[in-house]
Amino acid sequence: HSSATTIGAAARLLLLPDGDQPGRMAAPASEDESKDVDAFLSSCAASGEAAYAAAEAVLERLQARASRAAARRLLGAVRRRFDAGQEHCFLTFHFRDVVVDPHPQGFQQSTKLTMMEIPSIFTPVDWSFAFYEGLNQHQDSTSRDKTYAELGCGNGWISIALAEKLSPLKVYGLDINPRAIKIAWINLYLNALDDNGLPVYDREGKTLLDRVEFHESDLLSYCIDNKIELDCIVGCIPQILNPNPEAISKIMTENSSEKFLYSLSNYCALQGFFEDQFGLGLIARAVEEGRAVIKPMGIMIFNIGGRPGQGVCERLFLRRGFHISKLWQTKIMQAADTDISALVEIEQNSPHPFEFFMDLVGDQSVSARTAQAYMKSGGRVSHALSVYSCQLHKPIQVKKLFEILKDGFNEISSSLDLSFDNDSVAAEKMAFLVYLASFLKENKSNPCEPPFGCLNFRNLVAEFMKSYYNIPSTSDNVAVFPSRAVAIEISLRLFSPALAIVDEHLTRHLPKQWLTSSAIEGRADCDRAKDTVLVIEVPRQSDLLIELIRKLKPQVVVTGMAKFEAITSAALVNILSATRDVGS
Question: What pLDDT band is residue 414 in, cutting at 50, 70 and 90?
Fold first, then answer.
């Protein structure tokens, strides 16, 4: 739970009398209509379950063309009955109508949206308003022919607001809570028809009913199952770890308890241990599912609470093959009654701290443990809330790669790191990954290859070295190892030297016993344990390395080169000269 101190002008939640809504003047309620209102309220008063059943009955009337107008007039009359007392309506009849103004100040459209809320739908007002403000920063002049999907649509206000503002081809509002979908449909009819039950047409002669649909869906499963390609995916997905890890394994039904359905808004899927530890597992799965249905040049926009830290949040997108840009960022206050002890416990078992702030202005963060102590002493803390836009980097290749990996390679798919520090080599690396994935899929049992590695791959590496670095090489000059650390260890075992000196940056994965022996004096005569190599860590700087080569006279030297020394060949020539002199 969070409470925003400043929501800004992008969206406002208002409890307004009906007269404050332009263009919505309705005829006075008739006696029969008043009786209908009384009957509806009477059926709602018993409990939240009864209120939902009454709303569901109204939705059935809205979906039938013959009774649609009358049902819409009933909803208008119900709202007017509580013009100045919607909170009383919520407490007494277990529902309320709220009016949302989603437009920035100065926006040419001034239509406000009317929304019904019930207790079993989580409505994170501060988060969703901040998210919509971020969406307003994304400029899209070609939205009219595009298809959108909103994940976790709740009561549907963002989906409806997007359709009303952008006039897209279609907006799919998706939510795992079946009751949320029913209420979202009611809210769609509330805004697609006026209080007289007549359609509200836009400039293209369409209503919101032509542009918006709501469907029960676990993230993007509806779009995946129906093979719907999307131009834009948006999602204001909570990052709260569910106290009941078995919640999602339960059967999701419309008859589930209000408390359970409400908790669905906070559920967190196990999607990679590290990301799940910080409450990002559900967003990670949404991003991965989005890759399958987003068009190559499509955009995904997500709300990310900054408590895990900006680096962790951005890494979630980068390692899955996306470019990112931050559309919007603000700070919101952590609710004083929120228990963050779970975050403190996670922090104690992780090298990465959460990020909280002791005010709304400063940039100096504090850990969850510090924030908890401060809150217990009466202080208030905030955390960042950011809206990120992400787009596939090399979309054709990334989509092809994961299409290959989707069957039988789930572990590889979730552990791949597709972030690239250097864009100039990204295309080459992606092309190779696609080739490798295709090879693995087509060859269920790999053929027996020579000890130095796959001959075809070694030929490719040799050609690469010739083409890009002008090094005359053949496959005989190339050996393939699982990693650089393995290459060093196997080489040392092969040569079995009395003494080897190894670049200090390259010794981390060598056997510990190789690095702990100090038997340098008389090393040629000492009895060494089988498969043990005496290794001395040395600096990479060439003048220091050469001095150690001349003093220690090792049989094998393994080193890298500092970037500034690799500009010319002088350092390498000097190292080779020193090793030749001592017989290394």
Answer: confident
